[in-house]
């Protein structure tokens, strides 16, 4: 045991001097640094050993295709990944420290292999500590762009109770020379889940079979309802590893007596999907997993009654503006540019800085004072406008007149209105003014309009549900129609646009005739519109030409609609 602890201590100290990859490999090849696991790696526990206690709560996290497996309890002291591996190999946790040392040895002896894996060429798998300590001047970065981060990450989990990032799972698979079936619970984002829910192959071409199962779970969830709430939450996160076995029919399983006893074995602190285990101090957003961007810090949120979330209070901030940014916002005579232009570019400045992504800024009023330019705003995503997060954008005229570099944009928030409260899982924000005009000019389909805008939205903003400047499908179709750019419509989009025009026209006519209250009651009853009465003839649209023709004349309501059979027909009931 002391041998492995000494190895980890010596390795961490050596990495602290930032050696080159070649020096690290030479260090690992020293006789006293060799790690040999004193166990038979060819024999593993595929079925659950009798002495391993069943983790009933962890079973909630098994996807449908793995429901036949049974999970075992592991101690939550920061080493649960290696505890899980030890249970699979030895039916106890005695091999945990040796597996950690073997994983570190494997990763440092073969850095080229892991640094060439596409997943580890991006920023998202690494911890905040590894990223913050990155030395951009490391010579190894010239050959492997994440080389210094790789060294920092491994140094971080040299501690016996340090958390285990995704890199450790890859290293463990090679350390035991056996594939690891990494099982991640089902969440809404299949893209975010994919890197964690896969078969991770070892480095060696000739390795043992079959694979072993390790499951990512979150502690403290004990019922199906709690699991469903977690699964559908804003940022589903995990903080623990457990092994999963085939069920044994030979002996009666040993069951944990109480949930309280089970909780005494694990840590309560939860982290996000990036760390996926144990006690990671700094958590980040799940959706970062699908990007190649630098992982952002997680916005602090907490649940409120009635399916609402409360964001962390925001502070006043000053943003230095570049010359081109000032030119987009302020005119040459030191006035705000027209409201559509200045509003749009202010949002872009805030978005590029990654500031308060949960706030969908809606401008209430604009002021051009003697000494300053001000725009007062509130968050349109907040539940109650009276208490919504609100503040003011301010630029000092003296800086503009003196051509100061940089010009500062001050963002001041109103006291007691710094904390957003939004409905959970509800998107918000509109696309207006210059934002809509820029989209209208694009010669692409409505679907492509939305996709293009979504790509420009930072990860933090996507996670909050803030869809400001991203048109809804209906708005995108309307923008294209206003631009008279019908040639790019697909048949389905042309038909949807035509039906929308008919429904809008009929809705306005019904409201004028019967009053707005009657129209609202009709919506509550789920009644869309009265069948459109047209000529005493039935015209079926079977091809693109006829549908296109109908689309151009939809505003005059020629009367084609979908009946209950799903066919496009004209109503002739009144003439029968």
Q: How would you concisely characterize the structure shown here?
A:
By secondary structure, the chain is of the alpha+beta class. The protein has helices at residues 2-15, 21-28, 80-90, 96-109, 111-115, 128-132, 147-156, 166-175, 190-193, 224-231, 259-263, 323-329, 339-353, 397-401, 433-440, 446-456, 459-464, 473-482, 491-514, 516-524, 544-552, and strands at residues 69-71, 180-183, 198-200, 212-217, 240-246, 301-304, 308-311, 317-321, 361-368, 372-379, 390-396, 407-413, 421-423, 561-562, 568-569.
Main β sheet profile: 5 strands, mixed
Regarding CATH, which class of the largest domain?
Alpha Beta
Tally the helices: 21
Q: What's the count of strands?
A: 15
- Give the integer mean of the pLDDT values: 77
Q: Termini distance? A: 92 Å
- The CATH topology of the largest domain corresponds to Cathepsin B, Chain A
Task: Give the low-pLDDT segments.
Answer: 250-299, 527-539, 560-576
| The CATH architecture of the largest domain | Alpha-Beta Complex
Radius of gyration: 30 Å
User: What is the molecular shape?
Assistant: globular
The amount of helix comes to 25-40%
Beta-strand percent range: 5-15%
Domain count, please report it: 2
What structural category do the secondary elements indicate? Answer: alpha+beta
* Spatial strand sequence of the major β-sheet: 1-5-4-2-3
What is the fold's blueprint, element by element?
Elements: H1 2-15, H2 21-28, E1 69-71, H3 80-90, H4 96-109, H5 111-115, H6 128-132, H7 147-156, H8 166-175, E2 180-183, H9 190-193, E3 198-200, E4 212-217, H10 224-231, E5 240-246, H11 259-263, E6 301-304, E7 308-311, E8 317-321, H12 323-329, H13 339-353, E9 361-368, E10 372-379, E11 390-396, H14 397-401, E12 407-413, E13 421-423, H15 433-440, H16 446-456, H17 459-464, H18 473-482, H19 491-514, H20 516-524, H21 544-552, E14 561-562, E15 568-569
Parallel strand pairs: 2-4
Antiparallel strand pairs: 1-5, 2-3, 4-5, 6-7, 7-13, 8-12, 9-10, 10-11, 11-12, 14-15
Helix pairs in contact: 1-4, 1-7, 3-4, 4-8, 15-18, 16-18, 19-20, 19-21
């Amino acid at each position: 045991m002391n041998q492995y602890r000494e190895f980890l201590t010596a390795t961490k100290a050596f990495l602290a001097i930032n050696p080159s990859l070649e020096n690290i490999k030479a260090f690992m090849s020293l006789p006293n640094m060799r790690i040999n696991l004193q166990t038979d790696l060819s024999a593993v526990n595929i079925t659950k050993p009798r002495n391993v206690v069943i983790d009933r709560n962890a079973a909630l996290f098994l996807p449908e295709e793995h429901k036949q497996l049974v999970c075992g309890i592991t101690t939550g002291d920061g080493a649960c990944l290696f505890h899980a591996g030890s249970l699979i190999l030895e039916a106890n946790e005695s091999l945990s420290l040796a597996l950690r040392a073997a994983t570190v040895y494997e990763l440092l002896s073969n850095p080229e292999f892991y640094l060439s894996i596409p997943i580890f060429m991006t920023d998202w798998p690494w911890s905040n500590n590894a990223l913050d300590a990155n030395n951009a001047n490391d010579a190894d970065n010239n050959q492997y762009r994440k080389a210094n981060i790789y060294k920092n990450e491994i140094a971080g989990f040299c501690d016996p109770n340090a958390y285990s990032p995704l890199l450790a799972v890859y290293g463990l698979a090679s350390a035991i020379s056996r594939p690891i079936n990494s099982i991640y619970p089902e969440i809404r984002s299949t893209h975010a889940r994919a890197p964690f829910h896969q078969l991770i192959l070892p480095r060696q071409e000739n390795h043992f079979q079959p694979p072993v199962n390790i499951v990512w779970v979150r502690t403290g969830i004990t019922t199906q309802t709690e699991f469903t709430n977690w699964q559908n939450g804003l940022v589903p996160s995990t903080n623990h590893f457990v092994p999963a076995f085939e069920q044994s029919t030979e002996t009666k399983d040993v069951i944990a007596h109480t949930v309280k006893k089970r909780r005494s074995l694990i840590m309560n602190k939860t982290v996000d999907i990036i760390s996926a285990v144990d006690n990671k101090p700094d958590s980040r957003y799940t959706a970062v997993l699908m990007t190649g961007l630098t992982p952002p810090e997680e916005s602090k949120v907490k649940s409120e009654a009635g399916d609402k979330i409360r964001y962390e209070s925001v502070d006043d901030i000053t943003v230095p503006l570049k010359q081109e940014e000032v030119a987009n916002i302020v005119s040459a005579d030191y006035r705000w540019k027209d409201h559509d232009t200045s509003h749009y570019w202010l949002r872009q400045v805030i978005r590029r800085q990654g500031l308060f992504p949960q706030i969908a800024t809606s401008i209430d009023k604009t002021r051009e004072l003697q000494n300053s330019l001000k725009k007062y705003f509130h968050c349109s995503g907040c539940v109650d406008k009276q208490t919504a997060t609100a503040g003011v954008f301010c630029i000092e005229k003296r800086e503009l007149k003196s051509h100061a570099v940089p010009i500062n944009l001050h963002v001041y928030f109103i006291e007691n209105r710094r904390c957003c409260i939004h409905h959970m899982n509800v998107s918000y924000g509109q696309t207006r003014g210059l934002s809509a005009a820029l989209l209208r000019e694009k010669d692409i389909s409505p679907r492509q309009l939305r996709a293009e805008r979504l790509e420009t939205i930072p990860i933090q903003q996507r996670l909050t549900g803030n869809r400001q400047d991203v048109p809804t499908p209906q708005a995108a179709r309307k923008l294209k129609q206003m631009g008279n750019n019908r040639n790019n419509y697909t048949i389905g989009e042309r038909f949807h646009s035509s039906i929308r025009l008919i429904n809008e026209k009929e809705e306005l006519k019904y409201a004028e005739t019967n009053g707005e209250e009657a129209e609202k009651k009709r919506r509550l009853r789920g009644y869309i519109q009265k069948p459109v009465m047209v000529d005493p003839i039935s015209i079926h649209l079977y091809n693109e030409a006829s549908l296109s023709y109908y689309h151009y004349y939809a505003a005059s309501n020629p009367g084609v609609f979908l009946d209950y059979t799903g066919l496009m027909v004209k109503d002739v009931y009144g003439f029968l």
